[in-house]
Amino acid sequence: MLFVVTGLDKPDFLAQRLKFRAQHRAHYEGLGADLILSGPFLDPKGEPIGSMIVMRRSNQADAEDFGRRDPYVTEGVFSECTVRRWSWFMNRPSGAFED
């Protein structure tokens, strides 16, 4: 199953985001092939203000647990973080993923 993790940074938290960026990236890189895509949300100036990650996990509870262990969550960078199951409908690589 695919899940989308979205997090929005607390206002004026760019320094904290940069401080924990390597740990945040390492957390999701640890998924290996189960990391489908990821990247930051940007403000009008192009500065990162949040994150979106698409990952494969076996169930909702596992996805939520993994999302809660993101250093941006544990270190208080995100003001909010959600984990939702997602179905890749359009422009999905043929046969690449099962829902």
Describe the structure.
This protein has 99 residues and is of the alpha+beta class. It has helices spanning 14-19, 21-29, 60-68, 71-74, and strands spanning 2-9, 35-42, 48-56, 78-86. Strands 2-3-1-4 form a 4-stranded antiparallel sheet, covered by helices on one side. The mean pLDDT is 93.
For the residues shown, what is the average pLDDT? 93
Radius of gyration: 14 Å
Q: Please provide the count of β strands.
A: 4
Main beta sheet: 4 strands, antiparallel
Sequence stretches where pLDDT stays below 50 over 5 or more residues: none
Helical fraction equals 25-40%
Number of helices: 4
Topology at a glance:
Elements: E1 2-9, H1 14-19, H2 21-29, E2 35-42, E3 48-56, H3 60-68, H4 71-74, E4 78-86
Antiparallel strand pairs: 1-3, 1-4, 2-3
